[in-house]
Amino acid sequence: MAYYRPYHPPADPLIVRDLTRQQDELRAHLRLEPLAAEPALIAGCDSSFPTPETVLSVFVVLRFPSLELVEKVYYTGPVTLPYIPGLLAFREAPNLLLAYDKLQHKPDVIMVDGHGIAHPRRMGIAAHLGVLLDRPTFGVAKNKLTGTFQEPAPEKGSISPLTDKSGELLGQVIRSKDKVLPLFVSPGHRCDQATATRLTLACLRGYKLPEPTRLADHWAEEFKKELC
């Protein structure tokens, strides 16, 4: 069976240059540090595209460490930018910010479906969103964007480092469930790798995805039904 890969036309070089400059400016504000205190509320967020012209962004807020659902919100808006590799945040973050504004319970830390510093310019969507909100964030991604790693052992909780060519630690590769493909966890903003890894492991409840991003994805599917 052939695998369909959507066609994305080449992006305007002037747009790419401008967005790359903005990304470099945002990176100057990035801070990797432990959380000031143990979180009481942890959020998960995700974006999807119900139609080619529409982006749907979801935030869920859970109590930590019980992971009881406290709040769920969504926001839909027009897609204002084509898909450009390495610049995904500019396509999704504006709508995520509008979803975040709807939250009555602001989280202490945000788990983002995507990368933090495990990005060619160290500014994945988790880092990007964290700087814009000035809130602690980290990324939990299903696929590698950059770096190299050794496959972790097949048992849940196995970890291996994700590094660049110079040996810089970009993230950690975590087996979240026995014998499933691993996750790629990296700090975003106002968070460090140890915290990102610890919180990811603490949020596992028998599924591949940790509860904050799993529930964000689940509610995205439910909210899509309301749009039909």
Q: Could you tell me how far the N terminus lies from the C terminus, measured between alpha carbons in angstroms?
A: 30 Å
**What fraction of the residues are assigned to beta strands by DSSP?**
25-35%
Mean pLDDT: 94
Structural class, judged by helices and strands?
alpha+beta
What is the count of DSSP helices, taking H or I runs of 4+ residues? 5
Tally of distinct domains: 1
Helix-residue proportion:
25-40%
The CATH superfamily title:
archaeoglobus fulgidus dsm 4304 superfamily
Main sheet, how many strands, which sense, barrel? 8 strands, mixed
C-alpha-based Rg, rounded: 17 Å
Strand order within the widest beta sheet: 3-2-1-4-5-8-7-6
Order of helices and strands: HEEEHEHEEEEHH
Characterise the protein shown here.
The protein has 228 residues and is an alpha+beta fold. The protein has one domain (38-227): archaeoglobus fulgidus dsm 4304 fold (2-Layer Sandwich), CATH 3.30.2170. The protein contains 5 helices and 8 strands. Strands 3-2-1-4-5-8-7-6 form an 8-stranded mixed sheet, with helices on both faces. The chain is globular and about 40 Å long.
Write the layout of secondary structure elements.
Blueprint: H1 13-27, E1 41-51, E2 54-63, E3 69-78, H2 88-101, E4 109-112, H3 125-133, E5 137-141, E6 159-163, E7 169-174, E8 183-189, H4 193-202, H5 211-227
Parallel strand pairs: 1-4, 4-5
Antiparallel strand pairs: 1-2, 2-3, 5-8, 6-7, 7-8
Helix pairs in contact: 2-3
